[in-house]
Fold:
Amino acid sequence: MQSAMEESPISRTQQPLFSIPVDVNHKATEFNPFSISSPHMKAFHLAWFSLFSCFFSTFSIPPLLPIIREDLHLSKSDVGNAAVASFAGSILSRLLMGPTCDLVGPRIASATLSLITAPIVLSTAFISSPQAFILIRFLIGFCLANFVANQFWMSSMFSGRVVGIANGFAAGWANVGSGVTQLLMPLIYSFYFKTLNLSSSTAWRIAFIFPAIFQAITAVMVLAFGQDLPDGNYKHVKKNKTSADNHKNNAFNILFNGLKNYRGWILGIIYGFCFGVELTTDNIIAQYFYDRFSLDIETAGVIAASFGFANIVSRPAGGVLSDEMGRRFGIRGRLWSLWVVQMVAGLLCYFLGRMNSLLGSILVMSCFSLFVQAASGLTFGVVPFVSKRSLGVISGMTGSGGTLGAVVTQLLLFSGCDSKISTEKGISIMGLMMLFCSILLTLIYFPKSGGMFCGASKQNPDSSQYHLLA
Structure:
């Protein structure tokens, strides 16, 4: 059964203001990632590129950890606590980013956050103690809140029939930043250290100039060339609203309507154990291969980079699968496909921790990356259908769940605080946690569309509460 959003009327003719087909709300009904047509596809490219720079900044430290921990005399506990701090910093910022997008639009919200955090990334070059290292990782974690603006922007620009693939590509291509930084940061460090003959301490510090400048440039691009909605920016569109609309959509109502929707909470937990697991893996994988298989920092970085690079195809594939299953089976298809992919990802994560050979670990890690990232894309294939009015809040709740899941797994399994759990055993336990949490998907039900095991309600829900029922 088709969901209500997916059955919205669509204009099959091209509107005079747009170069691609749009629906009655001027949201694009087609998605071409190689187009730069304005405003829809231009927003797509600005959104993913800006978030790409934020992922690059956030994960620029892990590939250099073997060097940094020696220079700053970091203990295993310091490294683990810093990783937890990194994710903790993004939890609150993601929660706040959702309502901020609802009020001022994704363009201003995204660019402002990037411009505020870029100097923090640069200040990594000046840290000299374990305490400062932990604080910097906490503050840099705020960069990841840009993800909420990214997904909000796509949901504002693309109709229900293609919103899954738009969200998948925008987040998937952006997440590649976590892989590119694993590859480039060791090379940048090696250039300063080996080619320019700078000291190791100076080389890794200078390396952080690049991610800081890169992030600031993308923020300026978003401000200069971006547009919040198909019909203009938020501040202009808001002027055309009636006072009643403004009252109904004030900040408190938007936040309250989102927070009392239980589907947002469940999706937050699910996302915590697909994207959250992905974040944790990004944080530990280079150091894991470096320590367990005695690799050099460049080789470990290349292997770790392959995990993030999979986002080029894996997360978009999740969005494509979600939209296709949505067209065929409605919201039930989206939920079932998410559950299956999440279960396979959990099994692969479990077996990754059980592998004893380098080649076997690389192969299983590669398969695991494809499924866990596709599960993230599938999750945000469901999010836009939960609430129309509080889309930003639901996106923020789900996005915060992702980083909260990373905090939980990092703190429980990889913090290094006198834990007897080895890294490989922690990876396997993380996979079991994914399997267990995926059961919660069976509890999601949409009265107008159904759930995994139930069809739509025979009673017609009150249309005035559509923002709660999807």
About this structure: The chain has 21 helices and two strands. The longest strand covers residues 445-446. Confidence is low (pLDDT under 50) at residues 1-15, 462-470.
